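Progress note, sequence design subtask.
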């Protein structure tokens, strides 16, 4: 794995931990040892999933992914840790946490599994917008996992915010991949809408983040959301001018999650 991919993987792990910590900070009901267990479980899962992302894009069969895994000792180590830690996680976690983790896993399966009964090689992520929705939901569920609760207005407000922000972030990453995606006939937002309409569309979605105040009407939530919306608006404009910039499409884009954590830590009473 090259240094660029390792850097991106570490950023995704930072994003994972940030969202778990955000959920915990909003709704601190979980015991600290369980938080560490959940965090390590999520780190292993994130490293395995995004460590194989390059291979997944280049090879479309499950067999090819296993072959790629066989060549990467580091990936094998994390898979082994996942296998070992899964029963421990299930034993010590609440039913809410287990269900949330199952929902995350189900979202990942829906994202990648082939539905050959519909069409040979067909995946849901090939449907316009579905890929971005599934990515947004999977990452948003980390807020619920960190909060160790399925339903709480305060936690659900940030689940909505994170899911929408990750949706937008995944579309910005698609902008950077537009030339590759055109070659494989992918139906991403930049390809279907074109760059001319993609950025106004993302600005509208970003503005919808303000609806969070309808879920949990508190001033500190509004202030946090306004900052996040301003942050993402800046990223959208920067990517609009520099489509292939790793700084804007990847690094600062992924760092939206730590930004949300910092805002919650600073503003929540």
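Output:
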């Amino acid at each position: 794995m090259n240094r660029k991919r390792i850097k991106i993987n570490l950023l995704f792990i930072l994003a994972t931990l940030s969202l778990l910590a955000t959920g915990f900070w909003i709704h601190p009901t979980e015991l600290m040892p369980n938080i560490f267990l959940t965090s390590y479980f999520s780190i292993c899962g994130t490293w395995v999933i995004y460590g194989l992302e390059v291979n997944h894009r280049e090879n479309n069969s499950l067999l090819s992914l296993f072959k790629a895994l066989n060549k990467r000792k580091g990936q094998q180590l994390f898979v082994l840790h996942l296998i070992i830690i899964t029963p421990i996680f299930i034993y010590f976690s609440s039913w809410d946490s287990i269900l949330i983790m199952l929902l995350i896993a189900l979202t990942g399966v829906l994202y990648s599994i082939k539905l050959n009964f519909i069409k040979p090689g067909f995946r849901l992520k090939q449907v316009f917008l579905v890929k971005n929705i599934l990515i947004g939901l999977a990452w948003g569920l980390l807020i619920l996992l960190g909060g160790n609760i399925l339903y709480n207005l305060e936690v659900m407000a940030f689940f909505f915010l994170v899911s929408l922000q990750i949706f937008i972030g995944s579309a910005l990453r698609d902008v950077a991949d537009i030339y590759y995606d055109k070659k494989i006939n992918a139906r991403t937002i930049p390809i279907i809408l074109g760059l001319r309409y993609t950025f106004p569309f993302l600005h509208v979605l970003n503005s919808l983040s303000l609806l969070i105040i309808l879920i949990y009407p508190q001033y500190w939530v509004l202030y946090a959301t306004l900052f996040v919306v301003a942050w993402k608006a800046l990223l959208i404009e920067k990517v609009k001018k520099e489509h292939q910039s790793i700084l804007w499409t990847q690094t600062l884009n992924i760092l939206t999650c730590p930004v949300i954590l910092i805002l919650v830590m600073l503003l929540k009473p």
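The chain has one domain: 3-267. Work on this subtask will continue into the next period as scheduled.
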